[in-house]
Design goal:
The structure holds two protein chains of two kinds. Helices cover 51% and strands 14% of the residues of chain A. Chain A is of the alpha/beta class. In chain A, α1 links the parallel β1 and β2. The termini of chain A are far apart. Chain B is elongated, with a radius of gyration of 40 Å. The chains are: A alpha/beta, B alpha+beta. Chains A and B meet through α1 and α6 of A and α8, α9, α10, α11 and β3 of B.
């Protein structure tokens, strides 16, 4: 993979670069703030962009705004956003522009090296990687939204894992249930949420999040 | 005898009687000067009022009236040991006409003019009385000297009888004069002091704010300084949060990442002991990150700084094991101190809901009504919450009171529990 990183902490920027190099990914550009992100992506056409939310000059959400802008201009560019803390609205803003190749992870997930690289790979391949904490917050926020009330706890669990971007096989492994059971749960969820089934992972996430954001 | 002298003649060793006398003597000259200026300005303004020049002149007169207070308070501070606060400075706003009107309606300005008028006649009285008592006292106590240096009075005749002042008569007169003089000298400091008290009363009543005004001003000063310290505490907490995030946390993440990489490399080698140690270090580093994150959240959560109350409360609700519904009609950010107060109220309340209430659901309601942020947290639990039992509630009350807010708890046995915090947010 060819990757562009925007991260203001030198320590983490270099750490992540080294980490990705370990798994044979190349960081083609590493930025200290978000101002040049769009131009850099235009120049390098990377397979993945990793952006920190909080960056200079205001240290609030310029990284996220740059990512949203980038997605608006080049919707096909996979973006993985790293954040100090979970903010469901960051996720929502990001996902509004489509869920193909989008990730939102807590920064500290880079400590789990292998999982982090897998998530990055998944996003680069057009998949989704949402932090479990993001997902739980999204689901909590919508507990009272109506349609989700109809779900059983198990189905809610499955929905959460789906939103994280896990495949059916990964879900069945995570919950220690058979693949058939997972499929049954998913079709129940789709029925209860009134969603037509779709074979694409990201469509499922999109649909789930659309509901969540209503 | 010593005590007697000390009591009646001691004051002359001090400075008070001299300073008060000086002040009273100066009163007349000050009075003449102030009166002259004031009456000239006033009559000029009045005379010219039909032309355009009169009004600005009147405004100038009243503005100058304000200058009397600092001047005369300075004199009183120096000579009467009277320390008085000044009036609140007049800061007229708006256009020229509005400012002129503000000055014309300025009480302290007119009081200064009134003082100038009063001072002329009072100064004259004071001067006369003080000069008289000092000279009479001086003449009487020095009577023996006068008797000594002057010739005996010539004899005079009334109704055929000739009176002649001889030894005893003169001696008697001198003694009488001396006694009267000593009495007057003994009383003089008190007389001067009473007169000076008239001065004090004049300055206090006309040239300084009343006690109530002083109290009001003190209250508003205290309020300002309290607001400032609450706000600066909030700012300081945000700074600490940012420092922890940008410093320690980044470094810890980096450490954990490096340990993670080391762990992955080691998996292919056959050094189980090292791998175990690295794995342990990796886990501990990750645990430290989580702990640091919780700590920072307890100080001042980053999401509150960046995204405001609504978002921060949603995050709290998401972490609460009891399902929480959040309703918010906050359309804009409220001041930082209100945000953090409200946030910690919700945090504490939800902690209590999770720990004690046995509730199956809870709601958090955020709304701004007439400049007051109202935070309502209710649950369908067993109730019976008291401030003592709920521990943290007491600390919350202090926190809410620091921003002039109110905290109300309703929790009958059997439930439900409702906690309402009202925090003025000045918007």
């Amino acid at each position: 993979m060819r990757i562009v990183i925007a991260e203001d902490s030198v320590l983490l920027r270099e750490g992540i670069t080294r980490l990705l190099a370990e798994y044979d990914h190349e960081v083609v550009a590493a930025l200290g703030d978000a101002s040049e992100l769009l131009a850099t992506v235009e120049a390098h056409a990377p397979d993945l962009v990793i952006v920190d939310v909080r960056m200079p000059p205001t240290h609030t959400d310029e990284g996220l705004r740059a990512a949203v802008e980038l997605r608006a201009v080049r919707p096909a560019t996979p973006v993985l956003v790293l954040s100090q803390y979970v903010e469901e609205r960051y996720a929502a803003e990001l996902l509004e522009l489509g869920t193909v190749g989008v990730g939102y992870l807590l920064k500290e997930r880079v400590a789990d090296v292998r999982e982090f690289v897998e998530a990055a790979q998944r996003v680069a391949n057009g998949g989704t990687a949402l932090d479990p904490e993001v997902v739980s917050q999204l689901l909590v926020r919508s507990r009272n939204a109506g349609p989700l009330d109809a779900l059983t706890p198990r189905e809610r669990e499955v929905l959460g894992l789906m939103a994280q971007g896990l495949s059916n096989a990964a879900i069945s492994a995570a919950l220690v249930v058979s693949a058939g059971a997972v499929e049954k749960h998913i079709s129940n969820i789709f029925t209860k949420l009134d969603l037509p089934p779709s074979e694409l992972e990201h469509r499922r996430v999109l649909a789930v999040l659309r509901y969540v954001n209503e | 005898m010593k005590r007697f002298v000390q009591r009646w003649y001691g004051p002359y060793a001090g400075t008070q009687v001299w300073k008060e006398s000086a002040h009273l003597l100066a009163d007349m000259f000050v009075g003449i000067a102030l009166f002259t200026v004031a009456i000239t300005m006033l009559s000029l303004s009045a005379g010219l009022l039909i032309t355009l020049v009169g009004l600005p002149l009147l405004v100038l007169t009243v503005a100058m009236g304000r200058l009397v207070s600092p001047m005369e308070r300075g004199r009183a501070r120096g000579l009467l040991d009277l320390e008085l606060p000044g009036f609140t400075p007049l800061a007229p706003q708006g256009n020229l006409w509005q400012r002129a009107k503000a000055i014309l309606g300025d009480g302290p300005g007119w009081l200064g003019i009134a003082y100038s008028m009063t001072m002329l006649w009072w100064g004259t009285v004071a001067f006369t009385v003080v000069v008289t008592i000092w000279t009479v006292a001086f003449s009487l106590v020095t009577a023996p000297a006068w008797a000594w240096i002057s010739d005996p009075p010539p004899p005079f005749t009334i109704g055929g009888t000739t009176f002649r002042f001889g030894g005893w008569a003169i001696a008697g007169g001198v003694v009488l004069a001396l006694l009267l003089g000593l009495m007057l000298v003994a009383l003089l400091p008190r007389l001067v002091h009473w007169l000076a008290n008239v001065d004090r009363a004049l300055v206090r009543s006309m040239l300084a704010p009343s006690e109530q005004e002083q109290l009001e001003r003190r209250v508003s000063e205290l309020q300002e300084s309290r607001d400032a310290s609450v706000e600066s505490a909030a700012t300081e907490l945000r700074r600490i949060e940012r420092d922890l995030h940008d410093g320690a946390q980044q470094r810890l993440v980096s450490v954990a990442m490096n340990l993670g990489m080391a762990k992955e490399r080691l998996s292919d080698e056959d050094d189980p002991r090292t791998r175990e140690l690295v794995t342990q270090a990796h886990d501990e580093a990750k645990q430290a990150i989580v702990e640091l994150r919780d700590l920072v959240r307890g100080i001042h959560p980053a999401v509150l700084t960046d995204r405001g109350l609504d978002a921060a409360v949603s995050a709290l609700a998401a972490r609460c094991p009891v399902p929480v519904q959040v309703r918010s009609d906050l359309s804009s950010r409220v001041p930082a101190a209100c945000e953090s107060t409200a946030y910690f109220v919700v945090a504490e309340a939800l902690t209590n809901v999770a720990k004690h209430s046995r509730a199956t659901s809870a709601t958090v309601d955020l709304t701004v009504r007439e400049g007051v942020l109202v935070v309502t947290i209710s649950d369908d639990g067993v109730g019976g919450a008291t401030e003592a039992a709920a521990g943290g509630l007491h600390g919350l009350r202090d926190r809410v009171r620091a921003v002039e807010g109110r905290l109300r708890l309703a929790s009958p046995e059997g439930g439900p529990t409702t906690l309402i915090a009202e925090v003025p947010c000045g918007s």
